[in-house]
Amino acid sequence: MTTKRLKESPSQTAGPYVHIGCTPNFAGITGVYASDPGATMLTDSTEGERITVTGTVYDGEDAPLTDALIEIWQADAAGHFSTTNTGFTGWGRCPADQDTGAWRFETIRPGATGGGAAHITFWIVARGINVGLHTRMYFPDEPKLPSDPWLSLVEDTRRDTLITKQVADGHFQFNIHLQGPNETVFFDA
Amino acid sequence: MPRWRPRVADPLYPRDRNWNPAAHFPEYKSSILRSPQKPLVKAPPSPSEDHGPVFGHDMLGPLDNDLIRNFAAPGEMAIGPRMIVHGRVWDENARPVPGALIEVWQANAGGRYRHAKEGYLAPLDPNFSGCGRMITDDDGTYRFTTVQPGPYPWPNGPNSWRPAHIHFSVFGHSFAQRLITQMYFEGDPLIPLCPIVRAISDSAAIAQLTARLDMDATAPMDALAYRFDIILRGRGSTPFGNRMEGN
Ligand SMILES: [Fe+2]
After folding, report:
1. Distances (CA, A) of B46 to A58, B50, B145, B183, B184
2. Is the reported ipTM for this assembly greater than 0.95?
3. How confident is the model at residue B225 (pLDDT cuts 50, 70, 90)?
4. For testing the chain A interface, which of B55, B136, B180, B227 should be mutated: the one with the most A CBs within 10 Å?
5. Taking a C-beta distance cutoff of 8 angstroms, is the pair B157, B136 a contact?
6. CB contact under 8 A, A13 and B180
7. Which residue ranges form the domains of chain B, and what is each CATH number?
8. CATH, domain range A39-177
9. Residue ranges per domain, chain A?
């Protein structure tokens, strides 16, 4: 008997109406869920350095995706992943602005984990994306960047696509390009 | 209640990119400018992907899995063929996945979504939002009630129609199991015509997204039933290989 008997359900695009199911309040559907899951990552008791992460996802003609849904997943300030649904869950979800495509997370700076450099995992779904795209945002001033096991798999010329830009104190900008000369590195993990 | 999730030493089986839809599938026009052109970078397992967010039943409201009533005015119900959708979430090793958050969204019985960017002329149902969610039980089962969504036209080609479908978003225990997919209905003649479906090349994979009429699970004089099982990535020490159970 083999242990692998089943195949993963194949992915399908989230489509343009993903907000109805994932962020209904954002979609104007109120009164069903008290709040949209992942809309708030921080509580008063969350420990760690507060940061803001903003960005836009761009298509192959540099047009912003105004219908994308972005999820992030990260360790806490000490580099641990939450195993409960209380306190800092480490997970956030933000729909792109329906006019500009901008998205924004208020979170904390994660600690380093797994022997690599501190990072935030990104997962992007949208109309036209048939399988959700997985990437990582690293911080520019992390001493472990050169030895990070994932970054070391990326060719030098593309590594910059994974490193966020600090645009103000505690504010990081991480734009994602689906195609083109600055195409973001996406992972298969 | 917080739910503790064990760390599992074995890595997840690699995602089968040939079984999944092609990222670039020109027949589905939106994929042309939104598909990465460079290969994905294969990366080793790491704690970020091994862990995932935890969702507790305490987040759920009593009507979250009742799309017929969760947006309806008091005493009202959504219009359309009433149905139960149920099934189980498994991993690739055929082990049930408990505690999985499932979010669903769908058009109403006329094929119309409640969404600002929706342009179809079919009317909204004032008692239907198309949004629901649930968390799988200890044996991986889930269940919700809804009305059958209608097929709808969409601006892909001059005469493109989506087969009737329900969108599913699923969280397993690891973020690398994260899945968004769509459920189709057995016997729908629009399935093989749909470019979004056709981005999947393997007919067995398409069949896996097709719910089966389940006459054993109906609510007589109330609702038909469809069975739809969902498979998330599983773990094993020998990716792609076979090994005996129990080692
Ligand atoms: Fe749809």
Report:
1. 27, 6, 38, 31, 34
2. yes
3. very high
4. B180
5. no
6. yes
7. 54-231 (2.60.130.10)
8. 2.60.130.10
9. 39-177
